[in-house]
Amino acid sequence: MPEPESRLKRRPATLLRTFASFSPLLRLLVLTQLAFNIGFFAVLPFLAEHLGTAIGMAGWLVGLVLGLRTFSQQGLFVVGGALADRYGVRPVVLAGCVLRIAGFGWLGYARTTGTVVAAVLLIGFAAALFSPAVESEVARQAVCREEAGDGPRTHVLALFTVAGQAGAFLGPFLGALLLAVDFRAVCLTGAGVFVLVLAGHAWLLPQRVPGRARIRSRGGLRRLARHRGFLSLCCAYGAYLLAYNQLYQLLPAEVERAAGSQTPLAWLFALSSLLVVTAQLPVTRWAADRLDLRRSMTTGLLLISAGFAVVAAARPAGWTGTVGLLPVAGYVVLLTLGQMLVAPAARAWVPDLAEDGRLGLYTGALSSVSGLIVLIGSAATGSLLDTTLPPAVPWLLLATITATATALLPHRPTAGAGAKPRS
């Protein structure tokens, strides 16, 4: 006997069921995010070690190169988004793939500081092209599905997050296997992944995406700079990204102190990835039924703040060994749960704040503005590690910043996670 319609609507979302309900274009874009991150994270985790040992760069120069990669990527997202609005998704994505292939291939053969810097800048700029184009189109498709009554937009964006996290989880394993050959093999394999992505998009991505108009008028950036609601969202999202960046800044130092080595760090990263892959959709479904976008981000930021507070409270005790790792494990879990609420909600909020036809620009600006906040905030946080202040201070400061960021969220009502968005 077939299930009643009401029961069908209450059936919990699963990865496969949600993915199968997507249009062919949306499925392609989600798989794109998975492939992007597999190729990228097959190389990135091993770059610093390669630069320091094989190339012989000093530590400060390695840090500078990594910072330049971040800047050329996050800082230029606004450029990629504007180009996607102007020329469409397809040419920008294809150009980004070509540049990423060239960048990885170049990096594999680079042996001088100048060639390494050039290759890294090319790799970063490639992502600044294709990522905003893909993310903005996913957000637009998510809103269209919501308007058609096919479920909250956050479900689409949550699955997009899961795909990215799965790629970030699988990529390092692929890179580690290839590192047994050499770093060049890692880079060339990363380039090979993007060759496949390029071929798939050249074949499957339509010349013109239905419903997406190209904007030829100027002035969008000036209006964006005066959009207080959107800039407030960027600042709150920047506080979240600054907190997330502590997985690579505060967390390794605390793990080293508690365990005497970096070995548990890999397990903590795996825990975070596993939580996102298994729990993102249930968490998003729970939030869509109970919270609008502002409350979802507020709850997520407060969970992240609580994670920092746990370590700050435990740090004065100076615990080591397994007991010493419990607070940071709690931090990772709370940070990841907060991420599951904040990231899809922030992306879902952008279409409600963006100017008509400039979703790519606003999607890119969200990453660029928040990336600048992370750059400044990370430098300040790093300086605290070199002072004689109590070791709990950086953790307490991050807890305060993340909690305070909830006050920055726009107050003007916008479409909620399950509500029909404005036109």
TrEMBL record:
Keywords: Cell membrane, Membrane, Transmembrane, Transmembrane helix, Transport. InterPro entries: MFS (IPR011701), MFS_dom (IPR020846), MFS_trans_sf (IPR036259), MFS_Transporters (IPR050171). It is a multi-pass membrane protein. Its main location: membrane. CDD domains: MFS_MdtH_MDR_like. Residues 13-423 form the Major facilitator superfamily (MFS) profile domain. It is found in: Cell membrane. It comes from the Bacteria. The chain crosses the membrane at residues 25-48, 54-71, 92-109, 115-134, 155-177, 183-206, 227-245, 265-288, 300-319, 325-347, 359-380, 392-410. It holds the Pfam family MFS_1. The keyword Transferase does not apply. This is MFS transporter. It comes from Streptomyces tauricus.
